[in-house]
Design a protein that fits this description.
Chloramphenicol Acetyltransferase; about 400 residues; globular; six-stranded mixed beta sheet; alpha+beta; five-stranded mixed beta sheet; 9 helices
C-alpha cells in the first residue's frame, strides 16, 4: 500500500461520520507533561502589519481556515484528539503592543488560551502601534510547520480565497510506522553545555527569557552557521537538535499535526559551518530523524515520573550546564509577505516565538522574509544568563550579517 492510498483510507476511517479524529502520539503525550512544568507551552506566530483589520472579518477567516484545517480545532478525548467543530476564539486586545525587549514578561503572551481550558488554539488581534495578529498554538496539537499551514490559510481566507486545507489525521508515530525507521535511536544523555552557561534560578524571576533579533541578511546554511557559532562560543563539543519536517517523506501529505523529529548534530568548537552543513545533509540523506520517535521511551512513564525527569533536567542544566542538547535550532523557511496582504492591511513582519521548555537551555526559531531573518530564542534563565544571552544574540547577528553579505557580494 502506498503512503497516499494509506492516507486516503486513514482519512476516511478517522472522519467517519464527519468527525476528524486521530490518536495522540507519544511526542504529544510528553507535551502534556511539559505544559505542566513549563506553562503555557505555546508556540506563537506573530504577524505585524500596516493598516486595520476588522475583528469580524478575522473571525470569519479563522472559522473558514479552521474548518479546512481541523487540527486547529482539536480537544482531547482520552487517547485521541478530536475535532470540536469550534474554531479558535479571536480575542481583541485594544492598544496592546508587544515589547520585544522582554517578551517573557508580556502579560498577553503568558496568558492561558481561552475561553476554556480544553482549547488548544487562539488568535489575538492587537491594536497597538501596529495592527498585529498573534496565532497561539499548544504544541501538543501542531508542530511549527503545521502552525504555518494554518496561519497561511487564515490569511488566504482573509483575502477571499479558498483555504488549501490539511485534512489528514496523521502525526509522527503513524507516518514513521509507514515509512520505517532506518537505524537506531541516538543515545541522549545530559552531558552537553550551552553557550549561555549555567546560572542558579531565582524563583521570583522569570524562569525563561524570550528575546528577538532581526538579521538583515539571508542565505544558505543558516542552521549550520548558527550551530557553528554556538559551539565556538561554548568552547566545548556541543550537540544541536534540528527539527526535521517529516512531510518531506510524503509531499502529498496535508496535516497540521506534530510531524517533526530531531536530527542531532554534534559540533566541535572551530568546525566550519560548511563542515556542519555537510554533516547535516548526510543525516538528512540517511533519514536519521525517523529513528528518534519517543527517544528513551519517556512517554511510557507515569505522568509524575515524566514531570520529575523534566524538572531534574532543568535543575541539572541550570546548576551545572549539563543538558540533553546544547540548543534546538529550528528554521521554518521563507515567507513571501506580499502574497499575504489583505484589503486594508499589509503584513510587514512575520515571526515565530518558540515555546519554553525546562529541558532545553536554548530554543531558536527562525523565519525569513523580505531579505531578513527573524530570529527569536527561548532561553532558560538564571543568574548571569541575561547579559550572556544578549551578547550571544549580538554575536550571531553580527556574524551572520557579515558572512551572508560577503556571500552575496559580487567580489569573492
Amino acid at each position: 500500500m502506498t503512503l497516499a492510498s494509506h492516507r486516503e483510507g486513514t482519512t476516511a476511517a478517522h472522519r467517519d461520520g464527519g468527525v476528524f479524529r486521530r490518536r495522540i502520539s507519544p511526542t504529544e503525550r510528553l507535551y502534556f507533561r511539559t505544559r505542566e512544568v513549563s506553562p503555557p507551552f505555546l508556540m506563537h506566530m506573530v504577524v505585524h502589519g500596516v493598516g486595520v483589520l476588522d475583528p469580524d472579518a478575522v473571525r470569519r477567516a479563522v472559522d473558514l481556515a479552521s474548518a479546512a484545517n481541523p487540527g486547529a480545532r482539536l480537544v482531547r478525548d482520552g487517547d485521541h484528539w478530536v475535532d470540536s467543530g469550534v474554531a479558535a476564539a479571536v480575542r481583541v486586545v485594544p492598544g496592546w503592543t508587544l515589547d520585544y525587549a522582554a517578551l517573557e514578561d508580556d502579560a498577553v503572551l503568558n496568558s492561558p488560551i481561552g475561553p476554556t481550558p480544553d482549547r488548544t488554539t487562539e488568535v489575538l488581534l492587537l491594536t497597538g502601534e501596529q495592527t498585529t495578529v498573534v496565532f497561539r498554538v499548544f504544541h501538543g496539537v501542531m508542530d511549527g510547520m503545521g502552525m504555518r499551514m494554518w496561519v497561511e490559510d487564515v490569511l488566504r481566507a482573509l483575502r477571499g480565497l479558498a483555504p488549501v486545507g490539511a485534512p489528514d489525521p496523521i502525526a509522527d508515530a503513524e507516518l514513521v510506522a509507514r515509512v520505517g525507521a532506518p537505524g537506531r535511536q541516538t543515545l541522549v544523555l545530559p552531558t552537553y553545555p550551552a553557550a549561555t552557561g549555567r546560572g542558579r534560578q531565582d524563583p521570583a524571576a522569570s524562569r525563561w527569557l524570550l528575546r528577538h533579533r532581526t538579521i538583515h541578511a539571508t542565505g544558505k546554511g543558516v542552521v549550520a552557521r548558527i550551530s557553528a557559532i554556538l559551539a565556538a562560543e561554548t568552547g566545548a563539543r556541543s550537540r544541536f537538535m534540528v527539527p526535521v519536517d517529516l512531510r518531506r517523506h510524503d509531499p502529498a501529505l496535508r496535516s497540521t499535526g506534530n510531524l517533526a523529529l530531531p536530527l542531532f548534530l554534534d559540533v566541535a568548537p572551530g568546525e566550519s559551518w560548511e563542515t556542519v552543513s555537510a554533516r547535516m545533509r548526510a543525516g538528512l540523506q540517511a533519514r536519521t530523524e525517523l529513528n528518534q520517535l519517543d527517544n528513551g521511551g519517556l512517554s511510557k512513564f507515569p505522568a509524575a515520573a515524566i514531570r520529575a525527569v523534566l524538572r531534574a533536567s532543568n535543575w541539572l542544566g541550570a546548576r551545572f550546564n549539563r543538558n540533553m542538547v546544547s540548543a534546538t535550532v529550528s528554521h521554518m523557511g521563507r515567507i513571501d509577505l506580499d502574497e499575504l496582504a489583505v484589503p486594508g492591511w499589509t503584513p510587514s513582519t512575520i515571526r515565530v516565538l518558540p515555546q519554553h521548555s525546562g529541558a532545553m537551555p536554548l530554543l531558536f526559531g527562525m523565519l525569513e522574509s523580505r531579505g531578513r531573518i527573524e530570529l527569536t530564542v527561548s532561553c532558560r534563565n538564571g543568574a548571569g544568563i541575561e547579559p550572556r544571552l544578549e551578547a550571544l544574540l549580538d554575536k550571531i547577528t553580527a556574524t551572520l550579517e557579515a558572512e551572508l553579505a560577503q556571500q552575496d557580494s559580487p567580489v569573492r
